[in-house]
Each structure stands twice: as C-alpha cells, then as structure tokens.
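Supplementary Data S3. Sequence and structure tokens for construct A.
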Amino acid sequence: MECTVSWTGAAGTRSAMGFVAETGSGHVLVMDGAPDPARPDNGGQNLAPRPMETVLAGTGGCTAYDVVMILRRGRHQVEGCSVRLTSERADKDPKVFTKIHMHFTVTGRGIPAAAVERAIALSHDTYCSASIMLGKTAAITTSFDLIDRDASTAAG
C-alpha cells in the first residue's frame, strides 16, 4: 500500500495548510487545516476535512466494511450499515485519540442482535486494522441499534 501526500500551498497563500493525498489505488483525498485568525499563513481555509478527521473516518469505513462482510458471510439480509464515531483527543501534543465510541446502526431483515454484536466484536478484536491500531492509545467502546425491516423494531 502506498500514498503520496502533497502540500498545495505555500506561506502567504490562501491554502497555506491544504494537502492532496493520492492513494496507490488511484484515488484523491483533499485535506485542510483549521483556520488560524491570528496567523492566516499558518492555518487552513476549512475547505476539506482535517487529517485526523480522515483517520477517524477511515477507521469507521474499515470497521463498517468488516461488519457488513461478516453479516453477509453469515447469510444475513443486510440492507444498511452506518457507524457514528465520537472521539476525544489528548490535550497536549501528540494529540492522539484517547477515547473513541462507535455507534453502529444496522438495518436488515431478520438479523439477530447476537449476529450484529458478534460482527462488531470480530471487527474490533480481529479484523479492523485501523481500530486495532488506534486501540493502542484510545479506549474504544461500541454500541448498536438494529432496525428490523420485517418487525420495524430497534434493539441493541
């Protein structure tokens, strides 16, 4: 796996802290820093996600991917899966993640809550490289809602 990240601006320009990442799979991701009114040439323009936001988003994508794949392999009728991540970071540099909570919402037909709980645990403990890596500095917790299209009920 590879990625090239290039700075898009120079000191004194409007995009002083903008970056473009070109992934090995041929995709592009734009990142920007937070605006700094006291030092405009040091801050971003708030035109794209912050780099640490992309780390959190990537972790959500990694674990949601796992959960869907595990449920599908179990022949469950998954119709939707989202995960809302909330986090806290250290106050001092390096401002690593110290707490991350992942709340999954899984939608489908006749999926047992135990299957969703198992899929989340397998992702968290075995498959999701991103959350396992972040788990070295952050306490990661999970929860879920299960929306059954047949019963129109929520559990979890």
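Construct B, processed identically:
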Amino acid sequence: MSNLNEEVSIKLIGKITLLLPVLEQKLDLQLEIKRAIDETLYNYDVQTKCTDLITSDIEEKAALYRACKKLEGLSPNTLENYRLFLEKLDQFYTKPCGTITTMDLRMFLAVLGKGKQQSTINGYITMLKAFFGWLQNEEYIIRNPAAKLKLTKVPKVILQGYKAENLERLREACTTEKEKCLFELLDSTACRISELDEIKIEDINFTEQSLIVTGKGNKQRIVYFSTKAKLHIKAYIGKRTSGYLFVSDKAPHQHIRVRALQLILSKIKKRTEVTERVHCHKFRRTQATYLLNSGMTIQGVQKILGHTSPDTTQRYAQLSQENLRNEYRRLVV
C-alpha cells in the first residue's frame, strides 16, 4: 500500500472514531476496520490535490533532536535507539510533524507493537512523548499529539542476582589476571560494563580502593573495590602507569571495547557448569541486593549504582525475607 493510501486509511479511522467514540477504547475493533479499509483501497492508487505539500520533516527534526540530546549527555546507544525508532516513524508517515495526530500515533504503535511485550510498547510510547514533547517545547509544533498516549501498567518484576555458589564457580574459572581483574571489579563495584571499559589507570586510587567512573549523562561518581580486586588490578597492569585499564594482550596493547569484555565473561562461563544466564549487568543487581541486605540505605545503594531515582534502585535490589523479618521484629515486637 502506498503512503497516500495509508494516510487516507488512517484519516478515515480517525473520522470514524470521532463519530463513534466507543471505538476509542477498542483498539482491536479499530484495527479490524482499518484492515477492511485497506482491502478496499488495495486496487486503487490514491492521489492528492496538493502533492507538493505532502512532505515529511520527521527525518530533519529527528536529526536536530538527537543533536540536542547528545549535548545533554545521552549515551550513544540511546541516541542510536532513537534514530532507528524515528526512522520507522518517518517511513510510516509522509507528512510534516505538525500534522501528525494522536490517532496517527496510536495506529503506528498498533502496527509496530504487534506481537511485542507491553513493556516494549511502553518504551515506544516514552520515546514518542520525549520527541514530540521536545518539538512542542522548541515551538516546532503547536500541540503535542503524544500527550494523550497512556502507558500501560506492567507488573514490576524484581530479577534475581547470581546464586552464591555460581558466583564462586565463575570466580574459580578465571585463569588470567585480566579475567580475574574484570571479574573482581564487576563483583565489587556494581559498575556498568561500559563504565569499567572507560577506566584509566590514573582513575584508580589504590590507597582508598576507589575508582572515578563516568556513568550515564556523563555524570562522574566514586565507586569502591574489594581487596581481591586491588590485588588483581595491580597484577594485571604490571608496570603500566597510564592509559586504559583494559587493553589487548598483544602489542601495541590498544584499548579494548565493551564487546571484548563481554566475550571474556562468556569464555569464563564456558569453563563452568553454571546454567543460569551470565551477563555483566547481573553483577550490579547482585551487589545492590547484597548491600541492601547488609544494612546500607536505599539512598546509599542508589549513589553506588549511579541512579538518578531510588525507584530504579529498588527494582535492582530486594530485601531478603530474613532481613524483613528482623526489621519487623526490631520495630514492632
């Protein structure tokens, strides 16, 4: 179906929904009506009286949006996700941003979100709200068509950290000093793998057993590492006094990237009989839960993890039933 046929189909759905408000809450019925319209239009080529006005500026506005967000410190991965998502929006509609309606966005979400989990669709809605909210704030559009989009409540599932015995199996499977250094830093600092990747030797304070790391939004914070990590860091860097901590094994010993560190962890797992999923981010969850159960406040754990909101931290960590029972007895009994 051509873009003009699709646009007519969307507009017809919008008009019908205005006439029959009951459709507002019945997305499945809207889709069924749209399919009927699409089938009817299939053998026709829709033309417009003003084809010179049917141009999209989504790509242009998306480029400006990403440039502004880059200055605000959004990570390269987040910016790339926005690029790919807004590219799909541009392919879906051949029209200026200012003419896109709430109904347009609902139909876009219905098509793009087909077969996706609700949490994924909520992510799409969040990106639409951010983009069109920015367009409105920058006065590129008068009204924000994404303002009326509602997020669906998704049950908050607290994912588990590593089992203690599996953590020890992984530790024992490390063979080189690089592997041991990476493992102990992941285990004790609760850093993101991207943060460890950017560590330079001059960022390390061996006296305080601390590191300066740069997290999301280019925000720096201090994290602490264990004595085991200290010993393996020293053994790994040898006589090196500057440059990145993690480098390639062969000359000229260039800085290795996140993917290479992830592969190191994957190789460690293959030497064990650990069946649970092993990935770098799970160390953050494990350490956060350990710190919380050891008595650290949620605000303290929040600072260690570099979260802007304690709600995010709470999703990473959970109090054990034993700790909850002890806290209750201390306060109530």
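The radius of gyration is 26 Å. Residues 118-137 form the longest helix (20 residues).
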